[in-house]
Amino acid sequence: QKEVEQNSGPLSVPEGAIASLNCTYSDRGSQSFFWYRQYSGKSPELIMSIYSNGDKEDGRFTAQLNKASQYVSLLIRDSQPSDSATYLCAVNKGPLRTGGFKTIFGAGTRLFVKA
Amino acid sequence: DARVTQTPRHKVTEMGQEVTMRCQPILGHNTVFWYRQTMMQGLELLAYFRNRAPLDDSGMPKDRFSAEMPDATLATLKIQPSEPRDSAVYFCASGLVPGSGYGYTFGSGTRLTVV
């Protein structure tokens, strides 16, 4: 079992719809969760972080966390063609024996928003 | 706009040659990660530094890879000797971390091709 699992997609939604991206993780002790967006040929960029159960909203993006189910999701409202990218779920695992935490990424979900 | 700088952007080398990749983290960031990204494996964590000290390099093939931070403004990743299976995009990321709760800023990556 991978430490962070995502459906690879592609997920295709029409412009203006809600895109729902899901992620599960294996380490029940994980405390911090992130969503990164990666355009083709570019580097990942952080778009959301969430640490507590429930919802966190930032503009058109809402991150949802359910630690009991070990589940994180990202909702994108009013999807735009410019949202077409790969979305990477990331989880901080630790603390390490040497201290600190390390960030493990899922394989990513490709999202296509059709105009 | 603060950014993580990686050099070179592209590198083509012959099998058996030494490859050195460099990263300048954002000034003031105390945490540096090296990741490798391939289509098959996604983003794999290779090494992780906090305040220039290595905290985890369990994901790095030790026989040929080495990672160092000679000072706070420079992180290096070396491969010696390089092999075709090392072909990938290598990303450096930096962040300011106490605890586990922060995301990171990625550099533009070094695209390595070993022929």
Give the helix/strand layout.
The complex is a heterodimer of chains A (115) and B (115).
Chain A: E1 4-6, E2 11-14, E3 19-25, E4 33-38, E5 45-50, E6 54-58, E7 61-66, E8 71-76, E9 85-93, E10 102-105, E11 109-114
Parallel strand pairs in A: 2-11
Antiparallel strand pairs in A: 1-3, 3-8, 4-5, 4-9, 6-7, 7-8, 9-10, 9-11
Chain B: E1 5-7, E2 10-13, E3 19-24, E4 31-38, E5 42-50, E6 53-56, E7 65-71, E8 74-79, E9 88-95, E10 105-106, E11 110-114
What report would you give on this structure?
The complex is a heterodimer of chains A (115) and B (115). Chain A is 0% helix and 54% strand. Chain A has no helices and 11 strands. In chain A, a hairpin with a 2-residue loop joins strand 6 (54-58) and strand 7 (61-66). The mean pLDDT of chain A is 93. Chain B has 115 residues and is mostly beta strands. In chain B, 0% of the residues lie in helices and 54% in strands. In chain B, strands 2, 4, 5, 6, 9, 10 and 11 form a 7-stranded mixed beta sheet that branches. A 4-stranded antiparallel beta sheet of chain B has the order 1-3-8-7, with no helix packed on it. In chain B, strand 7 and strand 8 (74-79) form a beta hairpin. Chain B is globular, with a radius of gyration of 13 Å. Chains A and B meet through strand 5, strand 9 and strand 10 of A and strand 4, strand 5, strand 6 and strand 10 of B.
Strand residue percentage of chain A: over 45%
Radius of gyration of chain A: 14 Å
Span from first to last CA of chain B? 36 Å
What is the radius of gyration of chain B computed over CA atoms, rounded to a whole number of angstroms? 13 Å
Strand content of chain B: over 45%
Main sheet makeup of chain A: 6 strands, mixed
Instruction: Estimate percent helicity of chain B.
Output: under 10%
Largest β-sheet summary of chain B? 7 strands, mixed
Total beta strand runs of chain A: 11
Name the features:
heterodimer; A: 115 residues; mainly beta; six-stranded mixed sheet; five-stranded antiparallel sheet; B: 115 residues; seven-stranded mixed sheet; four-stranded antiparallel sheet; 11 strands; globular
